[in-house]
């Protein structure tokens, strides 16, 4: 475990930055390239540990994936180009790799075993295993298939109509990937809108999909064609700089080329509702995913309630939103966010514990937290607990701490943003 002394000793954050590529879209670009026929070029791919795990798994599945300068090139040979792997598929820390890949493997006529790190071993897989079994996949694993290691024998799949018990883009995407290989039409019904990158990518790779309100349907036996994917900057990474600019004095940060898909922009809605000084400019020439520039300046913030359908639109930003709320006047209440308990860590406990360590006033609840602002943060020793988003949030927290902060396990940030601390340092004045 590595320890970082965060003693930036700076008072403002200023400048322009392009954050790395979107993690969700980078995973999908590799997977869709792998199951399509022909060449796929992925530009602005995120070279973070999670997306590298996806590349490594699909290479083991026999797909030719190469890096040319900063681009990834995939030579797909369609569904049948995937072959039985000779060794286990290691997803590392990545929930997205695990759940989406299971949807692909479910219909492939071979055996494979999926493993991951200690965090993945605690994350529930029944949410995909149970519906995949209904479609005909043969899956075994620890605790009846709920946890890795998971063994899967792919089989011919039958389509289903499935109402998601939780609003999860990973479950939806897994079942759409299985549905593309099934006989007949598969329909997924969402309780609330979740990120729709898979739906967009099916269309981008020449497939057919129908979307009516909260019902998404795909026909089976679809063959996709390789293409070029321009990955926008990750709004989930941009969020750390947005919050840093809002809570530090004399600050202004301009974030260029950020993905602004409306299923991901809950953080912007929250900043606006809290009274932040923020402006958005859409790029006119963006491709199939909306992209734009976000500018955030020092802000006077007030506490709000964050709940309901907004939650899936900012689920990964809740740790940094909790820090934001510590600097708002009044109380912020986060509700309906029980999904936070099954991320890389239990993020309700992790946020409450680590930020309280620095002097924040946060009460964890069953489905979220109550943050009482505005608090002055002091220094102390905290830990990412092995969770990249907790590590980056604590890095931003250290910027407004009165004394120095020691961050344990800081290298967890490699999962989604390997150069996070260097990029942050470069903007500090
Ligand atoms: O589909 C995706 O790329 C993701 C979906 C979300 O997970 P859930 O589907 O479990 O909510 C999110 O938390 C994760 O970081 C990425
Ligand atoms: C939850 C996350 O990712 P995953 O589910 O892919 O591990 C995340 O990036 O915050």
From TrEMBL:
PROSITE patterns: EPSP_SYNTHASE_1, EPSP_SYNTHASE_2. Pathway: Metabolic intermediate biosynthesis; chorismate biosynthesis; chorismate from D-erythrose 4-phosphate and phosphoenolpyruvate: step 6/7. Keywords: Amino-acid biosynthesis, Aromatic amino acid biosynthesis, Cytoplasm, Transferase. Residues 11-424 form the Enolpyruvate transferase domain. It comes from the Bacteria. The keyword Amino-acid biosynthesis applies. The active site is at 316 (proton acceptor). It is found in: Cytoplasm. Gene3D superfamilies: Enolpyruvate transferase domain. Phosphoenolpyruvate binds at residues 23, 95, 123, 170, 347, 389. It catalyses: 3-phosphoshikimate + phosphoenolpyruvate = 5-O-(1-carboxyvinyl)-3-phosphoshikimate + phosphate. Belongs to the EPSP synthase family. Catalyzes the transfer of the enolpyruvyl moiety of phosphoenolpyruvate (PEP) to the 5-hydroxyl of shikimate-3-phosphate (S3P) to produce enolpyruvyl shikimate-3-phosphate and inorganic phosphate. This is 3-phosphoshikimate 1-carboxyvinyltransferase.
């Amino acid at each position: 475990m590595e320890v970082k002394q965060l003693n930036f000793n700076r008072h403002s954050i200023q400048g322009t930055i392009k954050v790395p590529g979107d993690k969700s879209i980078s995973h999908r670009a590799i997977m869709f390239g792998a199951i399509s026929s022909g060449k796929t070029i992925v530009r602005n791919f995120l070279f973070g540990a999670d997306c590298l795990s996806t590349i490594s798994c699909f290479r083991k599945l026999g797909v030719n994936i190469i890096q040319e300068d900063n681009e990834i090139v995939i030579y797909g040979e369609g569904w049948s180009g995937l072959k039985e792997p000779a060794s286990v598929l290691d997803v590392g820390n990545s929930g997205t790799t695990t759940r989406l890949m299971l949807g692909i493997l479910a219909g492939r006529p071979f055996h494979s075993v999926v493993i991951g790190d200690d965090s993945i071993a605690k994350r529930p897989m029944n949410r995909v295993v149970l519906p995949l079994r209904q479609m005909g996949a043969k899956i075994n694993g620890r605790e009846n298939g709920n946890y890795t290691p998971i063994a899967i024998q792919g089989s011919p799949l039958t389509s289903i109509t499935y109402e998601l018990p939780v609003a999860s883009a990973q479950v939806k995407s897994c079942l759409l990937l299985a549905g593309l290989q099934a006989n007949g039409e598969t329909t997924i019904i969402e309780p609330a809108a979740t990120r729709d990158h898979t739906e967009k990518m099916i269309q981008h790779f020449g497939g057919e999909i129908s979307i009516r309100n909260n019902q998404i349907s795909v026909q089976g036996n679809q063959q996709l064609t390789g293409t070029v994917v321009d990955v926008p900057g990750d709004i989930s990474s941009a969020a750390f700089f947005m919050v840093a600019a809002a809570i530090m004095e004399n600050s202004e940060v301009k974030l260029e080329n950020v993905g602004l898909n409306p299923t991901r922009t809950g953080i912007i809605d929250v900043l606006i509702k809290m009274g932040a000084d923020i402006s958005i400019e859409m790029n006119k020439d963006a491709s199939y995913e909306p992209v734009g520039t976000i500018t955030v300046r020092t802000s006077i913030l007030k506490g709000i309630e964050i709940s309901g359908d907004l939650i899936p639109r900012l689920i990964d930003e809740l740790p940094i939103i909790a820090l934001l709320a510590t600097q708002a006047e009044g109380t912020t209440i986060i509700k309906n966010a029980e999904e936070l308990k099954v991320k890389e860590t239990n993020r309700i406990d992790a946020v409450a514990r680590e930020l309280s360590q620095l002097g924040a006033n946060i009460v964890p609840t069953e489905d979220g937290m109550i943050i009482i602002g505005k608090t002055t943060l002091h220094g102390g020793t905290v830990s990412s607990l092995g969770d990249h988003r907790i590590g980056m949030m604590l890095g931003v927290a250290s910027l407004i701490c009165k004394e120095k902060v020691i961050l344990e396990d800081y290298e967890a940030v490699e999962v989604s943003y390997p150069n996070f601390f260097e990029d942050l340092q470069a903007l500090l004045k």
